[in-house]
Amino acid sequence: MTAVLQLVGVTQQYGEGELSVSALSGVDLAVERGELVAIMGATLTAVGGSRSVRRRINGWQAVIIVGIGSFVGTIAGQLPMWGIAHTSSQMRYWADAPWLWLAVLAVGLPLLVMGASWLVPPRHPDLTRRTAIA
Fold it and tell me: Taking a C-beta distance cutoff of 8 angstroms, is the pair 21, 14 a contact?
């Protein structure tokens, strides 16, 4: 079987001269198709991630989480209206729904949260290893 991902002789060194620290030295890794791999290690800051990288990751994470929540919430909020429209003697129509406001909620809220998470810089974390929750 051929490896889907293969790393050979990976090295990583931080600092220079006497303050040099070798994090990786000659690491090989091969991941075959169908294998499940969990990568655990230091925080993004500990491996050299800058504040701007962490800020962008926070922004996209906020968009995905809030976007899915607001989209599912908007759809779920339409179910009672649909039920009332079909059972009411005073038939309500889909055109009666506030579509503009629902669109603003479903699209605008994730963008607002992304902007706020991008503008507010993440706190300066410790350069320690995080443990994964299993």
Answer: yes
